[in-house]
Fold this protein.
Amino acid sequence: MTDNQIFEPAVLAGIKLKNRIIRSATHEGLADGNGIPTEALKIKYLQLAKGEVGAIITGYAGIRQNGKSPNYQMLMMDTEDYIPFYRDIVDAVHEHGTPIIQQLAHCGRQTRSKVTGEKPVAPSAIRDKMFLEEVPKELSDHEIRDIINNFIDAIDRSKKAGFDGVQLHIAHGYLLAQFLSPYSNRRKDQWGGSMENRYRIIDEIFQGARKRVGSFPILVKMNAYDGRKNGMRIDEAVHIAGLLEKSGCAAIEVSCGTIEDGFYASRGEKAPVDAVLEYSYLFRELNPVIKFMARPLVRFMLRSDPKPIYNYNVAAAQQIKERVSIPVIVVGGIKSLEDIADIIGTQKTDFVSMCRPFIIEPNLVKKFKEGTRKESRCIHCNYCSIAQEAQSLRCYYGKIK
Ligand SMILES: Cc1cc2nc3c(=O)[nH]c(=O)nc-3n(C[C@H](O)[C@H](O)[C@H](O)COP(=O)(O)O)c2cc1C
């Protein structure tokens, strides 16, 4: 495939995209205190749309208060009242001919009780080693059914707000990923044990949503592997991809890792120790001397150093593509036009998506297209990733400022 073909319009799940390069979901921290999208978020999306991105996937939006993110100012989609605010943004983005897909999530145990007002919930009562919260509450059958309904309601709201589709976040160790992975799901009832049981919650969301929203596109972002002992492995992920297709999933974006793994999903050369001390809720309030003394501890907490740091999900996504006939998108360490041309041109996947490259350059696709940039300027310092806990999204370029 030539560069020009990458930039030709393409269809994803019935949605017409400007090209094959997608903005992957990126928490922007630009909701107000209630989770309503702000004017600043609209401006951010318009920068991406004017920068000729193929489609925008929004930062994750919460479907229920007890699944709210601990990150700064998360979007919420848990009430009908928010529909007009989203509608305003969607309409503005559509004026540029850019599709916009809303990502929906429940954080499960990857949150803090201070944010949600209650103990975190999870498929099983297993403590998360990164969040260091109390042991989460194991969800009852009744509570699982409530959450399924919350997802279905949120999907319906996204449709009413005019989004082109939704993406269920079933990756990175959030609630639906917690159900999928045998590492975090030790249940013995119909929601745990066999793969079909661990997958059941997702299938029920699809089945319920179909009755409410008809053929409205429902995509997923899933882990091909999560790096956890006894966790998600690629062979299981391939099987789950088949189940997703059967459930009516419109497209699969392939990622990896959990928050517990640190920077497994968003990899970099070096652990962002300075950023953790400056922005992370565990350290930011400490006085400078204690912060200095805490440095070795932070280094130890961030010790996992996954490799490679570029294009790390491509091989797994390719395996998933071989198993399904729905479109496959790959994300993770993609930054050069040459690599994109190879991934798409040799049909390893149908689309590629990026997150960090669009934080530093929202108009990267336009630059690629015009030939003024061959590779993203992102240095994968991951300061943006840590600072999400404290403030709105921006590029730090490896410096505390
Ligand atoms: C600041 C930041 C915010 C993110 N927010 C989300 C999110 O809301 N939903 C999601 O699925 N992934 C989120 N991610 C993960 C990215 O979408 C992506 O999977 C990961 O960063 C690897 O892609 P990249 O190498 O292109 O950055 C976020 C990553 C970063 C750095």
